[in-house]
Design a protein that fits this description.
Elements lengths: L2 E3 L10 E3 L11 E10 L2 H8 L15 E9 L11 E4 L2 E2 L5 H4 L10 E2 L11 E5 L3 E3 L6 H6 L1 H14 L7 E5 L4 H12 L3 E6 L2 H9 L4 E4 L6 H8 L5 E6 L6 H6 L1 E9 L12 H6 L3 E4 L5 H12 L7 E6 L3 H10 L5 E5 L2
Bound molecules: zinc ion.
The site of zinc ion has 8 residues, from helix 2.
Length: 345
């Protein structure tokens, strides 16, 4: 089958387009899906680079997100048939550990991700446990269905399940270009929050406002954006900060919180070694809340809103599968706003 692979860890130059990868062999509780679209995530680039302890079967196929049609169904799968249009939660869980029993699938003892630990979606076919699937309604865009899963489930769990964001709260999103950040703007608006954005450049500030943000500060024009936010809040601070930038912004993000505020994070693109002023944590009684991926209930809750047209995922650009490396380069340069897709079928 056609696929994007890498044979060795390294740079994006290691990504190759091939036409002779074997079709995955699905297990009794899995389905085989013929992929229509796949979507890029920053995770792909971490996986290409590799890290200590990541032992992949090489060559590896990256990619966590897809939409497609079921091509084959395992012996023990019920409720799904060949030809159904589907997408899936990329969080893979064991179903047997104490976290799984509580429905905390993204805390599973052996939590894995499609495309991170097992071969992923940048291919004509992908296999996935049937319990991860959700049906894509007739007439719904297969591009949206592919763009949504990782950002939607990650954002829902961060804001709703873990962050307990409530209507009327001020949510500050630090960074506006990535998939999670742009979806955070839309979801926080839908939840009835006031949404402010720290954008890297005037264009991204405009795009954030177009997505529904109430106010945006351009950190290139206003390097002391933390103070700008503080002044804009009437010297109150904000209820919630979403910071997935990490080391470069962490301390400033903490400083924008009001008493009792929460900092939510699902990643740190500029580095993990951030400095936390402990006096802010106890003095202002703020919480730092981490989150990663999401359970199947998290996934189903947010996908229902997407399928109902209440929420959509911003799509930046669609590339042919064979041009995945160029697509990854675009994401690496930070030129994108929203999700970058690969057209497979
Ligand atoms: Zn488990």
């Amino acid at each position: 089958m056609k696929a994007i692979i890498f044979r060795q860890h390294g740079t994006l130059d290691n990504l190759e387009y091939v036409e002779d990868m074997p079709v995955p062999e699905h297990g009794p509780d899995e389905v085989l899906v013929r992929v229509s679209y796949a979507a890029l995530n920053r995770l792909d680039q971490f996986v290409v680079r590799g890290w200590k302890g990541l032992n992949l079967e090489l060559p590896h196929i990256p990619g966590a997100d897809f939409s497609g049609e079921i091509a084959a169904v395992g012996d023990q799968v019920t409720g799904w048939r060949v030809g159904q249009r589907v997408t899936a939660n990329p969080t893979l869980w064991c179903g047997r550990c104490s976290f799984c029993w509580r429905g905390e699938h993204s805390m599973c003892d052996t939590m894995r991700l499609l495309g991170e630990h097992v071969r992923g979606t940048f291919a004509e076919f992908v296999k996935i446990p049937a319990r991860n699937l959700i049906a894509v309604p007739d007439g719904f865009s297969m591009q949206q269905a592919a763009a949504a899963p990782t950002v939607a489930v990650t954002t829902w769990r961060m804001l709703v399940t873990k962050g307990q964001v409530r209507p009327g709260e001020v949510v500050l999103v630090v960074g506006a270009g990535g998939g999670v950040n742009s979806f955070t703007i839309s979801l926080a608006r839908l939840l009835g929050c006031t949404v402010w954005v720290v954008a890297g450049g005037a264009d991204k500030a405009q795009q954030a406002l177009a997505l529904g943000a109430d106010w945006a500060v351009d950190r290139e024009a206003e390097p002391d954006w933390s103070r700008a936010v503080y002044l804009h809040s009437g010297k109150q601070g904000v209820d919630v900060v979403v910071d997935n930038v990490g080391a470069a912004t962490w301390e400033a993000s903490l400083r924008t919180l009001k008493r009792g505020g929460r900092l939510l994070t699902v990643g740190g693109t500029t580095g993990y070694a951030a400095s936390t002023p402990v006096n802010i944590v106890f003095g202002r009684q703020v919480s730092i809340i981490g989150s990663t991926m999401g359970s199947q209930p998290d996934f189903e809750a947010v996908m229902r809103l997407i399928f109902a047209g209440k929420l959509s995922v911003a799509i930046d650009r669609v590339y042919p599968l064979a041009e995945a490396r160029q697509a990854e380069e675009r994401m690496k340069e930070g030129e994108h706003f929203g999700k970058i897709l690969l057209e497979v079928a």
